[in-house]
UniProtKB/TrEMBL annotation:
<keyword id="KW-0472">Membrane</keyword>
<dbReference type="GO" id="GO:0055085">
    <property type="term" value="P:transmembrane transport"/>
</dbReference>
<dbReference type="InterPro" id="IPR000515">
    <property type="entry name" value="MetI-like"/>
</dbReference>
<feature type="transmembrane region" description="Helical">
    <location>
        <begin position="142"/>
        <end position="162"/>
    </location>
</feature>
<keyword id="KW-0812">Transmembrane</keyword>
<dbReference type="InterPro" id="IPR035906">
    <property type="entry name" value="MetI-like_sf"/>
</dbReference>
<feature type="domain" description="ABC transmembrane type-1">
    <location>
        <begin position="95"/>
        <end position="296"/>
    </location>
</feature>
<comment type="similarity">
    <text>Belongs to the binding-protein-dependent transport system permease family.</text>
</comment>
<feature type="transmembrane region" description="Helical">
    <location>
        <begin position="233"/>
        <end position="257"/>
    </location>
</feature>
<dbReference type="Pfam" id="PF00528">
    <property type="entry name" value="BPD_transp_1"/>
</dbReference>
<feature type="transmembrane region" description="Helical">
    <location>
        <begin position="99"/>
        <end position="121"/>
    </location>
</feature>
<keyword id="KW-1003">Cell membrane</keyword>
<feature type="transmembrane region" description="Helical">
    <location>
        <begin position="174"/>
        <end position="193"/>
    </location>
</feature>
<keyword id="KW-0813">Transport</keyword>
<protein>
    <submittedName>
        <fullName>Glutathione transport system permease protein GsiC</fullName>
    </submittedName>
</protein>
<feature type="transmembrane region" description="Helical">
    <location>
        <begin position="277"/>
        <end position="303"/>
    </location>
</feature>
<keyword id="KW-1133">Transmembrane helix</keyword>
Length: 310
């Protein structure tokens, strides 16, 4: 087990190095274009050359890469072109805001989707199963921008119960978190519920579950101690993938509700060609993706000890 964990973390580090190299070559291979993005298209050639010399861009590319990688590892992401402050001053607060939103979504979505998925899988083909399946398909088919408009029309303009934006301009307000959370839960819970339902239905047809029931074990014991643990392996993978989606895939929701999160920051950096902010956001997103998948692989062995990885 220890060797497996060490291998997974080694693979994680190797992946991050490869991604960092590709990202560096993609965005900083041409020093001239970097200077133009930082200083603006109307800067003179002399100004660009002075900026390049001052920031070490006259060095060989491999030296610049290792300097860039070291700076990133130590938390120095450069200065934002858009905000005129160090990237870290903006990035961490925006990342924390998205983490708060993701926490609200997970606190509601995971219990809801797992419960409905297990209930549907236990009674495959029943009216309850069909109702949950249809509801899951409908909600998952509705994109975030459509559900955001629909919920805003109902709760903001129709009933007047909730604020239409989540900018937190007057400080922290739990009411401003309701609509973004509802949109994300509505879109995502159906996918996890369907995966859980499929996994649970498959486990319920296995021989060891049927044998346990025929031997007279209480149905609750069979479900909780035998079926549920094995049925959670596939949904566990899906849930871990949702962390990546909530980090960088909520751009539409954050932008629609003016929520100052990581997704909205990434969009703003792209629109303004904020190269250093884009680099930092991309590396953070990849880091979270690699870490969550590593934890998912390790979690497999705890959910089912029979699973071993080479």
């Amino acid at each position: 087990m220890t060797v497996f964990i060490a291998k997974r973390f080694g693979f994680m580090i190797l992946t991050m190095i490869i991604v960092s190299l590709l990202l560096f070559l993609l965005l900083e291979y041409s020093p001239g274009s970097v200077a133009t993005k930082v200083l603006g298209p109307y800067s003179s050639e002399e100004q660009r050359q002075l900026w390049l010399e001052a920031h070490g861009y006259m060095q060989p590319i491999y030296v610049r890469y290792f300097d860039w990688l070291f700076n990133f590892a130590t938390g120095d992401f450069g200065e934002s072109v858009r905000f005129k402050v160090p990237v870290a001053d903006v990035l961490w607060s925006r990342l924390a805001n998205t983490a708060i939103l993701g926490g609200f979504v997970f606190a509601i979505m995971i219990p809801l989707s797992l419960t409905l998925g297990v209930l549907a899988g236990m009674r495959e083909g029943s009216k309850l199963d069909r109702t949950i399946s249809v509801t899951s398909i409908v909600t998952t088919s509705l994109p975030e921008f459509a559900s955001a408009v629909l919920l805003s029309a109902i709760f903001v303009f129709g009933l007047g119960l909730l604020p239409g934006t989540s900018g937190m301009s007057r400080g922290w307000n739990i009411q401003e978190m309701i609509l973004p959370t509802m949109v994300l839960v509505l879109y995502d819970f159906g996918y996890v519920a369907r995966m859980t339902r499929a996994s649970m239905a498959e486990v319920m047809t296995t021989h060891y579950i049927r044998t346990a029931i025929l031997k007279g074990l209480p149905y609750k014991t069979v479900i909780m101690k035998h079926a549920l643990r094995n049925a959670m392996i596939a949904p566990f993978t899906v849930i871990m993938l949702q962390i990546n989606w909530l980090l960088s895939g909520v751009i539409v929701v954050e932008y629609f509700f003016a929520y100052k999160g990581f997704g909205a920051l990434l969009l703003e950096a792209s629109l303004n060609q904020d190269i250093f902010m884009i680099e930092a956001c991309a590396m953070i997103a990849v880091f979270v993706a690699v870490v969550t998948q590593t934890l998912a692989d390790i979690g497999y062995t705890y959910l089912n000890p029979r699973i071993r990885f080479s």
